[in-house]
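ARCHIVE RECORD
Type: protein–small molecule complex
Small molecule: magnesium ion
Source of inputs: curated submission
Record status: active
Notes field left blank by submitter.
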Amino acid sequence: MPGTAIVGLQWGDEAKGKIVDLLTKQHDIVVRYQGGANAGHTVVVGDKKYKLSLIPSGIFRPNVQCVIAGGVVLHPEALLQEIATLNAQDVAIGKNLIISDRAHVIFPWHHVEDVLYNTIGSNEPIGTTMRGIGPCYQDKVARSFAIRLGDIYQADFRERIATIVDAKKRMLAGLVNRPDRREGAEIQPDLDVNFDVDTICKNYIGYADRLRPYVADTTDYLLNAVDADKRILFEGAQGALLDIDHGTFPYVTSSNSSGTGISSGSGVPAKFITKIIGIVKAYTTRVGGGPFPTEQDNDTGQKIRDRGNEYGTVTKRPRRCGWFDAVAARYTVRISGVDTLSLMLLDVLSTFETLQICTEYELDGRRIQVFPSVSEDLRRVEAVYETLPGWSEDITGVRNFGDLPANARSYVKRIGELIGRPIEFVSVGPDREQTITV
Ligand code: GDP
Ligand code: IMO
Ligand code: MG
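STRUCTURE (tokenized, with ligand):
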């Protein structure tokens, strides 16, 4: 069974959605396996633009089965809203979507906790998407206060909510009244902790009723699909540098967003995932806090932001922009087991006179090629750059690699060389058609 995975190799927003949509036609099943509505994946088909948070980017091909697997955390209301928005855009969603009964559910206290836990001592805030993702995963690991989608249908749901509400109210009351905890949060949801058991039960039972047609044991479904030799495409969310274990901790998301999370999130054993495509932008962006060695907090960064329209899909925050970081990409290619690369948004770099690629770091006067494991070290590194000549042509209409300007071809080749993996796709615009197969 050819199981293929799409994994972001930077800090998210590498244009994974575009490549998933493109490759969907060669697959039977598309699976989201981690993260939640912190993800914002964009698919552009002709003059239509779709934004996806929880629903797999395979949803636009009706014969393909989309799966939200057990490793995802979901807010049922957000999911229903996403389904409604897509329906309004004439995207049919019915039997082509199944959702795991193992997926953990986000409740109102998770949103409050996201605000309260955003700060890390005196350091820079994490700058989360405030979707309750981290706190929901936290409760999952701690177990006692966690609710999975399948639990909402059980007779003891109300009793469990009553216990959790009682505990959360008492635990959060003291923290909510400390205004300093709110500082640094760029997004400020309601910090009301007067959770009402009746209202929550009524709302969530209502959501669960509406979601019932989609709810299934997706692990069993996927294991049967493996046995039946179906072609499965795994759609990663976020990027490997945001991985909870292998990313720039603590400035990360709360799931394994590198290649390491595919198997645990979906339930499909790693040996069935035969190809991993790593997605990188031709430069680097980051939303939220944390170290970013190649960041250009200057006119260059602003030019990239303007040309690439680098504003968050989910939170609309301006993305931090900088040069391509080959030290980071060499690390994430290896941790994610990447076979080939897809280099995205190359068109954004047109009109720069020269381009820089970070090939090494300098830390305390020493040159290093290894990506530091401690974020405070990463914060101190100086990026060492190689300068390449730019190109002035608009490349958004190019469809063959050979038709790219010579300097653009050299830039792409150099990135492949530095990372040590072949480049399979080059993207020169948001549309499906604006893709070069190398
Ligand atoms: P994802 O989260 O990895 O799916 O990426 P996002 O959707 O958050 O961000 C990628 C953005 O770049 C989206 O607005 C895409 O429509 C857009 N995009 C994708 N590929 C290209 C490209 O090659 N060139 C340009 N200019 N935009 C692109
Ligand atoms: P896609 O799938 C970019 C970032 C947040 C924050 C950190 C933690 O569209 O690439 P969280 O809400 O997950 O606890 O926030 O992770 N982040 C993303 N950045 N793209 C994403 O998803 C992201 N999902 C989370 O900005 O820095
Ligand atoms: Mg995104």
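CURATOR ANNOTATION: The radius of gyration is 22 Å.
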